[in-house]
Amino acid sequence: MGEDTRGVRAADVSRLALLLLWVALLVSALLWGPDLETLQAWVEDAGAAAPLAYLSVYLLGVFAFLPRPALNAAAGLLFGMSLGLVLAVAGGVCAALAQFWVARHVAGDAVARRLPEGARTRLETLAGGRALMAVLQLRLVPVIPYQVVNYGFGLTRMRMWPFVLGTLLGGVPSTAALVLVGVGGTDLGLPVAVGGAVLAVAIGAVWWARSRRRRTRS
């Protein structure tokens, strides 16, 4: 019994330490984090390590509430279309997973209090169905803000891999459109974004039809 109690206390202490670290990093990023232009300069000055620097900057920027569209467009400006798209998508997935992990393992109670009313319940319902399809659709058409989805799904019973895969696949169209803007292909950015929206509607229609069919059979 004593060993179990000590184990629970050690877990609580570890979680508290991680929570304090997360709060410290978040406050530091908000109060002293550099602006987008400074972050771009850091990446440009990194030389051969520029891709790794960009991914680090992406994580810092998301926690500092820098706009993700600007971070994605910066990938096109700095790296061109191909490498820029790979890095921007990777940055988005890593940032989403970091916030998912924070909500699940570090600051669940603090995160839950700050989510919009009803958002957690809605996400819990989605997580209990076809998890991959739910994440994919929310990424293609973000009816719920990006960070709310990340933190919110971290509070649900959703497994990590459907979340990661849905974020990866669903993030490509909108990210590609913004990377194109950064490259200078503004004329192509809109068609890519519209194509992503059409794909999301198609996925939603299939999902709705299958759900209705299951309800009819039951």
From TrEMBL:
One of its GO terms (cellular component) is plasma membrane. It is a multi-pass membrane protein. Its main location: membrane. Belongs to the TVP38/TMEM64 family. It comes from the Bacteria. It is found in: Cell membrane. The keyword Cell membrane applies. Residues 66-182 form the VTT domain. Keywords: Cell membrane, Membrane, Transmembrane, Transmembrane helix. This is TVP38/TMEM64 family membrane protein. The chain crosses the membrane at residues 16-34, 46-66, 78-102, 131-149, 161-182, 188-209.
